[in-house]
Design a protein that fits this description.
The chain has helices spanning 2-16, 40-54, 65-72, 76-82, 100-107, 117-121, 123-130, 158-161, 191-209, 213-242, and strands at residues 60-64, 93-94, 133-135, 143-145, 162-170, 176-186. It has 246 residues and is of the alpha+beta class. It has a two-stranded antiparallel sheet.
């Protein structure tokens, strides 16, 4: 009986355990973020942010507009009216508005496709990155990022967050480490509201990287129920086979 319980626990552990959403790489500390793919209002707000502020330069070339609408509960009429900036067909892939040649000329590099970014980087990395831009006069864009040093991307949401300065301190070995941010100019959003908006955008990008998760969560419940019923039947069958020996 104990052996059967151990086997059952091992079988169900992947489904019951919390998923590891990815590491922060070389970053000393990444801020935690709550990712909830069942929170459709958050996903819808994140989709609106992505379309308005990310899709101008970045593409999401593995996602179609109509698939996004179906998963997030947005009708095709609303998708066509509010989300189609780079195309006029709801069945098209989500391509960037800016041509790659222009992006290379202006930023020195073509902005990456963001479809799988949440899987490659992890949601904590993305959430922290979006909130970690600071003023840097030495940078061509005037901005830098503590999570991605010398990034070519400017801070497109600076009006919301405001302007902040990064404070670095040197350790005993003379290496500079990020310590904190100091606000230079407040933005139009209170800090908590801006953080919530970046959480919505991160939540959407996690969905974008793996839309099948929405279905997998539903299927997982039925798999757990099947394993539980099968475990009981298997145990009863084992008792029947071994009753004469025991």
């Amino acid at each position: 009986m104990k052996k059967l319980l151990v086997v059952f626990a091992l079988l169900t552990a992947p489904a019951l355990g919390w998923a590891n959403e990815g590491a922060c790489g070389q970053v000393a500390k990444c801020d935690p973020v709550k990712v909830d793919l069942n929170d459709k209002p958050s996903l819808q707000r994140g989709a609106r942010l992505f379309m308005n502020y990310c899709l101008s330069c970045h593409s999401a070339s593995y996602m179609r507009y109509n698939r996004l609408g179906q998963d997030l509960g947005i009708s095709e009429e609303l998708v066509e009216k509010n989300l189609l900036f780079a195309t006029d067909k709801v069945g098209d892939l989500m391509s960037a508005v800016m041509p790659k040649a222009d992006a290379r000329a202006w930023f020195g590099t073509a902005p990456p496709d963001l479809t799988l970014e949440a899987r490659a980087r992890g949601p904590e990395w993305i959430y922290t990155y979006l909130r970690s831009f600071y003023r840097d006069d030495k940078s061509p864009s005037g901005w830098n990022n503590t999570v991605f040093p010398n990034v070519a991307m400017p801070h497109v949401l600076y009006e919301w967050q405001g302007s902040q300065r990064a404070v670095f301190k040197k350790n005993d070995k003379g290496m500079a480490h990020f310590e904190k941010f100091e606000v230079e100019k407040p933005g139009t959003m209170p800090p908590k509201e801006f953080d919530q908006s970046m959480r919505d955008l991160t939540n959407f990008m996690v969905y974008l990287a793996e839309p099948a998760k929405l279905e997998r969560y539903k299927i997982g419940v039925y798999v757990i129920i099947f394993l539980a019923v099968f475990f009981v039947l298997a145990y009863l069958l084992k008792k029947e086979y071994w009753k004469d020996i025991h």
